[in-house]
Amino acid sequence: MLWNSKTQSSAAQVLDLGADDVVPVDCDSEEVALRLKRLLAVQRRSTQMRETLQRGLRAAVRDPLTGLYNRRIALPHLARRARQSRQTSRPFAVMLADIDHFKTVNDCHGHQAGDVVLAETANRLNACLQPQDLLARVGGEEFLIVSENAGIDQAQRLAQTLREKVNGTPFAVCGQPDPVSVTISIGVVVVPTLGGPEPDTEDGEVRAFIEMADRALYRAKDRGRNRVSLITAAA
Fold first, then answer.
1. pTM score, whole prediction
2. Which of 141, 148, 202, 205 is labelled catalytic?
3. Which residues are CB-contacts of 59 (< 8 A; sequence separation ≥ 6)?
4. What is the pLDDT at residue 13?
5. What is the CATH number of the domain that holds 212?
């Protein structure tokens, strides 16, 4: 804004409203250039600070390798889904998917190959899910899926689709002469509906869902891996 003695009060008001600077009408070009240079430097610093903050927030809730949410987002999401189930009487499914013999992938092909397998597994799983579903990395080679409005039949079909999506095509790894074949096992818990009062602690309810899915996963592992094991939670 250009100002002179008659418009000085207006200049003060403009600064109060958030303007970065005002320029006198008799200001020479060199001073204008210096002021612009200063303002641009301030803008760059502000942009850098904003980007740093955004990266920090992303790092707090996202897995850096796969880009998926981590436990910090996944567990509160599962608690919210349980609350919604009480309000809508709609079922949902909780799944734990684990890459079979993942240590062998690292040992035989190297950790870089293991990282490629993890990232591509996340992509393949995510491609099978709806936007309202949640996919998170909750362990080294373990993924949590929360599927909304999923009864027993729908959850069974989705879990088999997820398994086949990962198992169906070997993973191409740069520098490896042959693609890497990988399978996954999935434990599924279907919660038909949730009624009654809210639980004493949401954390306890979330832990119960995770523990049930973990039991189903271990049952799939015990039965030979590369399979889906499903249980139904008590309403």
1. 0.75
2. 141
3. none
4. 67
5. 3.30.70.270
The answer to whether the beta carbons of residues 166 and 182 sit under 8 Å apart is yes
Q: Give the integer Cα–Cα distance in Å for 42 and 133.
A: 41
Total domains present in the chain: 2
The range of the structural domain enclosing residue 53 comes to 2-61
84 lies in a domain? yes
pLDDT along the chain (235 residues), means of 10: 52 62 68 74 69 55 92 92 87 96 93 95 96 94 94 95 96 89 96 67 84 96 95 74
| Residue 198 is among the residues annotated as catalytic for this protein | no
66 in a structural domain: no
- Residues 122 and 8 placed together within one structural domain of the fold: no
Query: How buried is 186 (Cβ within 10 angstroms: 0-12 exposed, 13-18 middle, 19+ buried)?
Result: buried
Helix (H, G, I), strand (E, B) or coil at 227: coil
Question: Does residue 54 sit in the same domain as residue 75?
Answer: no
The SS3 of residue 232 is strand
pLDDT the model gives residue 31 = 72
- CA distances, 6 to each of 18, 69, 85 (Å): 21, 57, 65
pLDDT at 37: 78
The reply to whether 91 and 50 lie within a common domain is: no
Q: Residue 15: its pLDDT value, please?
A: 61
DSSP state of 69: B
Cα–Cα distance measured from residue 138 to residue 144, given in angstroms and rounded to the nearest whole number = 6
Q: Give yes or no: residues 56 and 99 share one domain.
A: no
